[in-house]
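hey m, so remember when u said the tokens were messed up on ur end? i reran from scratch. heres the input so u can diff it against urs
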Amino acid sequence: TRRSSDLFSYREKHAHQHDMIERAIEIGGGFLTTLLIFRFVLALLAANPANGFASFIYGFTDPFTAPFYSLFSYDHPTLGVSTFEGYTLVAIAVYGLVTAGLAKLVTITRY
């Protein structure tokens, strides 16, 4: 039979592992969401896509915004050279909700 102190130690270790998984999910989702916000702002400010930083942001986030490209039936609204990427805003919301949901799921299964 297990002693109560052994059981407590097991629960503590198990909870710590779940906390680490939850943090990793939140960090990964936060990183992706931050890059998507950068992408939205760069497009809105008409950043030069040939610039190294802008090129990196667009290249890294393209696979994450691609599922939402045809979500809206209108072309990307532009004002001068600025582009309003509505699909990027949707991607920010979706990935933010997915991140929060996965982190909550890990928290629920903690014990």
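this time it looks ok to me. DSSP finds three helices and two strands in the chain. if urs says something different then somethings off w ur setup not the seq
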